[in-house]
Structure formats: C-alpha cells, structure tokens
Amino acid sequence: MNLDPDDVRLMPIRLRRELLASGYDDATILRSVRSGQFARARRGAYVNAAPFAALDERSQHAVRARAAAKQAKTEVVISHTSAIALYPEAVPSWGLDLRNLHLTRRDGKSGRKEAGVQQHRGRLVEGDVVRIGDVDVTSPVRALLEVTTMARVEVGLVLTSCLLHRKPVTMEQLVQRYAGAMDHWPQTLTTDLVLRLADGRIESVGEGRVFHLCFAQALPMPCPQYEVSDDSGNIVARLDFAWPEYGVWVEFDGRIKYQELLREGESVTDVVLREKRRQEMIEELTGWRCIRLTWADLASPERVAARIRAAFARAAA
Question: Model's pTM, two decimal places?
C-alpha cells in the first residue's frame, strides 16, 4: 500500500520553525507566499505552490494531513479518512468527508478538535500502523474500520468492498480486528452492518452503490459478477449483478467504462455496438431481462427500485 517515492502527495513540507532556522524570517516567508513561490498547506506549514495548486481535493488533504502530523505536539498517526487519502489512487475516496484532518494519538489521552484537526483516542495494537513516506498511517484494516464509524453505510460499503476486491485486506482480517481491542470507537453499529454487506466481488464505486441501493430499497440482494455459460459450458460473460430466480440482471455503465473497454483502433461507437451484441447474446442464452444503470440513475434510488421490481413482475408474467 506504499506510494511511489515520486508521488506528489509526498512533496516536501517546510514548517515555519524549519524555515526560520534555515535563515528565513517571517517577512521573507510572507513575500514568498505572495509571490507564488510558497503555498500554505496549513498555518505554519509551507509547500511549493505550483504542484500543490495542481492537486485535487484528496491529494491536498493528504499533504495537509502530513503537515498536521509534523506539527503535532505529541506522537500521532494519520488515521480515518486522512489515512485513506494517503493510500494509492486505486483505493477510492468517494463519499468521504475531507473537510477535517484526522490524527490518532499514541499516548491514549483524550482527543480534541481544533483548527480543522480532529485528534482521536483509541488503542493502537500491533499491525495497526504502516509507514507511508515520512509519516505513520493507520493500516488499511484499521483505517477501514475507522471510516465505518464516521461515514454513511453506503460509503463504508463501497470502500470496504473495493478494498476486499483489490485484496489489501480480507474479511477475516477485518472481523478479527473488529472483534479485538475497540477502545473508544463510537458508532460501531454502522460497522456491523457494513461488514455484513461488504462483498469483494464488487469491483467499482458504481457497483458498490448499486448494491447498497438494493439493500436500502429492500430489494432481494443480487449476485455480483454472475457468470453466464454457453451451451458447451464455456463461460462467455460476467454480469455486474443478477437475480437468476427472477430472470433479471443489471449492468452498470460508469463514466469511463467504454474508454476502459476500447481496443486498439476502436472508437467508442465500436465499443457500444460490441456491448449491444454482448447483451443480445446473454438474452438469447438466458432469456433474462437487462436493466442498464448509469451514475445519473443512482440519484433517484426509488425510481431505480421501481424499474427493477417492474422487471421482476414482467419476467414472472
């Protein structure tokens, strides 16, 4: 889970005290900020302005979290959503609240919130901490559990399922850590639910949101990545979600799905036509009905649920 040493989130951070010790004074630091040479990652912590300005919200949060850890007056570990922000980009940050930085104290004393930094207390045990660049960060197992105590069920389900799919964590590890020392971890009822729902067969944020929609709308839970075989028994397709007992399946068309499916020399139109032929083949083999969903559909979960129930009814008829 470590970052490439050249990852821009590991850019050098210079604290005010370090700049003063190297010969700067406050007036020179201020001029450097106004001239665009420095940018304030947070008060008293400076970075090179141009690369910092080019970062997205997640990456700027990661840099600010490193600055807060360097400035802390006690030993801390970057944790919760701030830990997720420092993981490789393959770990999604969809739905996470990145407004505040999160640190966990090593001394076990009560945490506090000030200047946009939330300090947490909670006993760290062996395996809870990893090193990323120049800072200590809670491990993927610990960070996932931390996030489930503060994020919505949908967010926790998406994040946990994606990490299970990418295999930096296993469900056994999550359950064992959750059953272990959980001192001062509030709101763990959400954690219980997320661990029951999460499924490593879910491959993307969009698929995770569809899975949560089915749960939240009291639909029968579908089978993720359902395999379809031809008459010879060869697997010819995998469906994002399927209800074999109802004869219905769902395909989620994400923003970049068609770009990812592009082959050399193809256009997006070629991919769309190939997907159409694929859908027709699946329908001929199974006799099932297909429902295609997009990101826009997820904004209206009740409408999506009504479409799925209507498909169940038509298939039954």
Answer: 0.89
